[in-house]
Specification:
Chain lengths: 475, 475
C-alpha cells in the first residue's frame, strides 16, 4: 500500500510549506528510461559515488518510484548503497512487496532508525507486513510514545479503521471559544505538519461532538463558543470498522475526514481522505485480480512467488476441467459415431463461460461497492435471468443458422445446438449472479472463488446439455 | 459518476458548518429494507403525501441512494412526485445512468432550475451526459456566469482536467502579505462553501506561483509576504490532461489538490482530492468490467440496454469460438477414430485460457496504474514467460500422470497432452502480456479488446497444438 507520508524528520521541519508537493518539475513526468539506465549502469559498475549523487537529487516519491522500477537485484544493491541514509519517508511510499524486499536488505538497527522517524500510521503500515518475531524486535526499540501508539494500533484487526487511522490530529474541547482555539493553534508546538479540520470533543467524556474546518474557524466571531459554530452532524467511525466500509462511507457521504472512536466512544484517531484514495485503489485492484486468480503485486514479485500463487488457482481449474472432461467422456461412444459433436461442443461451453463472466464481474463489483443490497437483489436476479434469456435466444438463432448452412443435411444438429445454447446461456447468467451472492451470504469473498465455480457450471453444464440433447434426439 | 456536491442553495448558506456532513445517524447505516418498502407501498398506492413526507426527512445523499435503489418505474414515479422541489444537490450524487433517467422525467424548465443551483463542475457533469440538442437548450437558459463557465468547460475534451476542475476556489496575488490575505478571507463574500488551501498567482501573468494551506496561513507572521511563506514547489496540471493521468499524479505524489492552467499557463481551476476518489473508483470499475465485456452501470440499466451492450461482446466471442471449432473440424476424421481426443482437448484449451487471463489482468491493471513502464516491460515479459514455463511444466506433469493412470494402455496419449499443455501455457502467458502491450502501443484501450484476442489464441492454439501433436505422433 502506498500512501502519502507525513514526515517528521528535522529536515522537513526546517522547510516551511507543504512538503508533500516537493516535486521536481523535470522528474514529475516520470523517471525517464535514460535516467533509470544511468542508475543501472552505476549499479552494475559498482560506482557507488555516482549512484549516491544521482539519488540525492530525488524526493521521496521519485526515489520510491525508482526503487520500484529496478529489478530485485538492482533494488537490493541500491538500498544497500544508500543504507540508513535513506529518507524514512520513502518506505511507506513503496509497494508492499517492494517494501518487504527493501527492509530485508537492511539490518534491525537501520529499520528501527527509519521507523522511529515515521508517523504512527505509517509505522504501523510498515510493521504489519513483517512476521511477528521481527515486528516485536523492532517495536521493542522504538521510542516510548511511538511504541505505545503502534502497539495499540496493531491490536486492532488488519484492515480495520484502527490500523489506518492517524493519531496526529488537532482536537480540543467544544467548550472553548473561537478565540481560544485560534490562540491554541498559534502557540502549540505539537501540531501535525498539515491539518485542515479541528475535531471537537466533550471535555469530560472525550467523545467527539463536532468538527470545524479551518476556513470556518478563521471567519467565525471570536467570542462564540466552538460548540455553537461547529458542525455537529458527525458520524464517528468505530475503530473496528473494515477499511472497505470506511471508504464506502467517505464516497457515499462526500467526507473529507472521519473521526475514529474506541469502544467507549472516545476520539482516538482520524482518517483523512488521502488515505481513502489508496484504499479505493487497492480494493478495486484486489477484486479485479482475485476474479482472474492473480495478485496485484505480481509486477514486483519474483518468478517463483508468482508461479506459486498462480499455480494454486490453476490446480483448482485443472480439477474443474477434468470434471467437465469426464462429462464428455460419458458420451465418448456417441462422439466416435458422430465426430461433428466434438467440433460443436466447445462453442456452447465457451459462450456460456463468457456470458457468466459478464454477469459475475458486475455482481462482484456491485457487492463490493454496496450497489447491490437486499432491496434490489431479487430484481437484479430477475434482470440477469431476462438478459440470459434474450442473449440465449439471439445466439441460439445465430448458431442454429450457422450450423444449418454448414450441415444442411443434418437439420437436427441445428436444433440441438440452438436449444443447448439457449439453456446454457440462461444457466450461465443465473450462475453468474447466484454464485457470488451465495458466497457473500456465507461470508466468503465472492471475488476469489466465484470464477472457478462459474466455469464448473458453464463448462460441465455446456457439455452435458449439448451432448445430452444429442443423445436424446439423435440416438 | 457520483461526487460530493457543493451546494449554493440559499438553504445551505443559512446553515453554518460543513454541509457535507449532514448525515442522519439513523439512516447512515443504509436505507433499511423496511424504509424502502414503505416508500414502494406509498408509490404503489399513489399516496403522494406519505411519500413526500418521508422523502422530506432525507438529506441529499440518502435521497440519491433511495432513488438508485428503486426500480425504473418507481424511480420515475418518485421523481415526478417530488418534481422541481428536489434538492438540486441530489442530482450530481446520482449514478450516471440513474441521473439520465431522472432528468428524463423532468421538463426543461425544471432541469434549468436545478442546474442553475449547482456549482459549475457539478453542472458540467450533469450536462455532459445529455445529447447535444438538449444540452444547448438547457445552457441557453442558465444564468450568465454559470453559462459562461459551463460552456468553456464543455469545450475541453471529455474526461479532461478542464471538465472535472472546480472554478470555485480561493486565489490571490503572491505579493500580498499574510495580513492582507487574512483580511481578504475575513471580508470577502465570494468565497466557496469550503476550502483548505489558498492558491497564489503572479499578479501580472495570472500564472500559479505557489499555494499555502490554511493552517500555515493561520500560523505565519502577519507581515511576511505570501511568496515567502508559500509552498512554491507546485506542479500545475494542463487543462487538457486526462483525468486518469490526474488521478495518477495525485496518488503518486500525495497531493490534496492541484491547480489547473490553460494553454497560456494561467490558473483557471482547481481539482480537489475528493473528486479524485471518484475517478480512481470509476476507472478501476471500468477496467474490471471492460475485461469481462460488461459495464459498471448494469445494476441500474434496463434489461434491454444490458442485453444490447453484452450481446456485442458475445458476437465477437461467437466468432472466436467458431474459429476454434473450425480447427477441431480439421481433425474431425481423427477424432472419429480416437474419440478420447475429444474428451481431453478441452482441458488443454481451458487451462490456457485461465493462465492467459491471470497474466492479462495483471498487465491491464499495471498499464492503467503506470506500474508497467518502458523501463520494466521487457523484464515483465521475461518473467511472464518463465512463469508460463514453470506452470506449463507442472501441469504437463500432472495431466500427463492423470491420463497415464486413466489410460495406461495408451502411453503416447500422456506424452501428447503433457507436451500440448506445456506449449499452450507458454503461449497463453506470452499472449496475456503481448496482446495488451501491443494494443496499448496502438492507442487501443487494452482492457476492452484483450480478452477476446487472448481466447482466440488460447482456444484455437490449444486445440491446434493438442490435435496437431496427436496427428503427428499417433497417425
Amino acid at each position: 500500500m502506498k500512501k502519502k507520508s507525513k514526515k517528521r524528520t528535522p529536515l522537513a521541519k526546517k522547510k516551511f510549506g507543504n512538503s508533500k508537493k516537493h516535486i521536481n518539475q523535470q522528474t514529475y513526468l516520470g523517471l525517464g528510461p535514460k535516467f533509470v539506465n544511468s542508475i543501472v549502469i552505476g549499479l552494475n559498475e559498482d560506482d557507488d559515488i555516482h549512484v549516491k549523487k544521482i539519488v540525492a537529487g530525488l524526493d521521496e516519491y521519485d526515489l520510491a518510484r525508482l526503487i520500484e522500477i529496478l529489478d530485485i537485484s538492482h533494488r537490493r544493491k541500491l538500498v544497500s548503497i544508500i543504507g540508513d541514509k535513506i529518507d524514512p519517508a520513502v518506505i511507506p511510499e513503496l509497494n508492499e512487496v517492494v517494501q518487504e524486499q527493501v527492509l530485508d536488505s537492511l539490518d534491525e538497527n537501520q529499520i528501527v532508525k527509519i521507523v522511529n522517524e515515521l508517523d504512527s500510521d505509517d509505522a504501523v503500515e510498515v510493521l504489519e507486513n513483517m512476521d511477528d518475531e521481527e515486528q516485536d524486535q523492532i517495536i521493542q526499540h522504538l521510542n516510548p510514545e511511538l511504541k505505545y501508539q503502534v502497539q495499540s494500533s496493531l491490536n486492532y484487526p488488519e484492515d480495520s479503521a484502527g490500523r489506518i487511522m492517524s493519531r496526529e490530529f488537532v482536537s480540543m474541547p467544544d467548550s472553548w471559544t473561537v478565540k481560544e482555539a485560534r490562540q491554541f493553534l498559534l502557540t502549540s508546538d505539537e501540531l501535525p505538519d498539515e491539518f485542515y479540520t479541528v475535531f471537537l470533543v466533550d471535555e469530560k467524556t472525550l467523545r467527539p461532538t463536532g468538527e470545524i474546518t479551518l476556513d470556518k474557524l478563521l471567519r467565525a466571531k471570536p467570542d462564540l463558543k466552538l460548540n455553537v459554530v461547529m458542525n455537529g452532524e458527525i458520524v464517528p467511525v468505530d475503530v473496528h470498522t473494515d477499511q472497505e466500509e470506511v471508504a464506502h462511507m467517505f464516497r457515499e457521504y462526500g467526507w473529507m475526514s472521519a473521526m475514529v472512536v474506541d469502544t467507549k466512544g472516545r476520539l482516538i484517531g482520524v482518517i483523512n481522505i488521502d488515505d481513502v484514495v489508496e484504499i479505493v485503489h487497492e480494493e478495486a485492484s484486489e477484486d479485479m485480480m482475485a476474479i482472474a486468480g492473480a495478485e496485484s503485486n505480481d509486477v514486483y514479485r519474483s518468478v517463483f512467488d508468482i508461479f506459486k500463487s498462480r499455480s494454486v488457482w490453476l490446480v483448482t481449474n485443472l480439477f474443474v476441467t477434468m470434471i467437465a472432461a469426464s462429462v464428455v467422456g460419458g458420451f465418448q461412444d456417441m462422439i466416435a459415431q458422430l465426430s461433428v459433436l466434438a467440433v460443436l461442443m466447445p462453442i456452447v461451453a465457451s459462450m456460456g463461460g463468457t456470458t457468466g463472466q459478464q454477469t459475475l464481474a458486475v455482481v462482484v463489483r456491485s457487492l463490493a461497492t454496496k450497489e447491490l443490497t437486499s432491496s434490489n437483489t431479487l430484481r437484479m436476479i430477475g434482470k440477469e435471468f431476462m438478459v440470459g434469456l434474450c442473449n440465449g435466444t439471439l445466439f441460439a438463432f445465430l448458431i442454429g443458422l450457422a450450423v444449418y448452412f454448414w450441415r444442411p443435411e443434418q437439420v437436427m444438429l441445428s436444433y440441438i445446438i440452438a436449444l443447448a445454447m439457449l439453456c446454457n446461456l440462461v444457466v450461465a447468467s443465473l450462475a453468474g449472479i447466484l454464485i457470488p451472492l451465495t458466497l457473500n451470504k456465507c461470508k466468503v469473498d465472492p471475488a476469489i472463488s466465484s470464477g472457478v465455480l462459474l466455469f464448473a457450471c458453464t463448462d460441465t453444464g455446456g457439455y452435458f446439455i449439448f451432448l445430452g440433447l444429442a443423445k436424446l434426439l439423435l440416438f
